[in-house]
Amino acid sequence: MLIQGEYNxxxxxxFRGFEEPLEAGYIDDECWLMVELDIHSDKQKYHRVDxxxxxxxxxxxxxxxxxxxxxxxxxxxxxxxxxxxxFTLVRDDGPVKMIRITFAAELKPVWYDSPxxxxxxxxxxxxxxxxxxEFERELGKLAVGRKE
Length: 148
Fold this sequence. Notes:
Layout: E1 2-4, E2 10-18, E3 32-40, E4 45-54, H1 55-69, E5 77-79, E6 85-93, E7 96-104, E8 116-124, H2 125-143
Antiparallel strand pairs: 1-2, 2-3, 3-4, 5-6, 6-7, 7-8
Helix pairs in contact: 1-2
């Protein structure tokens, strides 16, 4: 899922499978996903694959994005068990939202000197819905042929 940020920065977030083989192909909300991240900044590029999200956390992210798009109440910041990724609703201007995606710990670009790297994104409600649908589709691809 490619997310366009300010100043021509982009972050692409995808899933590369599960951290550990699944017993009998069973998926539950506590299965760790290998998150693939590509960050492109002005002159820098960063690639990382890390077990950063669980299946249930992706489902919460999908719902958070949809709720934000529909103007429903959301927690201002969505954090996860691994403190390396967070989504924050910075500003809600009706049809356009400002979202900050924070990358820390294992997902922080090695060239960035602060404890966390953040990308601000101005996204329309439609773009938020599309992002939620993309995360859901990616998760669905991993679940093909498996029980949930």
